[in-house]
């Protein structure tokens, strides 16, 4: 899953949310010097990634993509699923996406002194582009996919993947609708 889903699945605990947002920027063993809630958020992020990667609905959805997109289907799905979540955020949260987006950036800003440089850079990107609120817009998703593609070491089709998403929109919506309730339940069970 991508940033919006990771944050949402973390519940309302600021340390869990912070740890979950750190998940894409901190690798290796979890530092035991971090606050316990942040450690748990990092562990939750990693567990959510594994749960997502092996979930039968997600596995089947990755199989829908044609070459050359299939190799990158996991990345495409993570980002597209954040778009689908953002478009219908009220179904999954008691607050608006506008409010949630601001609160998420505020959490990161409050902890900016202790964030890794890459996450601070991403926070600036979030603020500049009004993320995750702007994930509702397909044009922003297209730019996000292209941006991710530029960070990969090998040539890839991510900048052109909206055409493949367009072809698969109905099937991807069905997959999201089947998968996301399971992910929410998984996150709640891991939070205790």
Largest sheet: none
Radius of gyration: 16 Å
Overall pLDDT score: 96
Low-confidence stretches: none
Shape: globular
Q: Level of helix content?
A: 55-70%
Class inferred from helices and paired strands: mainly alpha
How big a fraction of the residues is strand? under 5%
Number of H/I helices: 9
Tell me the series of helices and strands, N- to C-terminal: HHHHHHHHH
Number of strands: 0
Describe the structure.
The structure is a single chain. 67% of the residues lie in helices and 0% in strands. It is an all-alpha fold. The radius of gyration is 16 Å and the shape is globular. The model has no long low-confidence stretch (mean pLDDT 96).
Short description:
With 192 residues, the chain is an all-alpha fold.
Indicate the topology.
Blueprint: H1 3-9, H2 14-22, H3 36-54, H4 56-62, H5 73-87, H6 97-110, H7 117-129, H8 138-151, H9 162-191
Please supply descriptive tags for the structure shown above.
192 residues; single chain; 9 helices
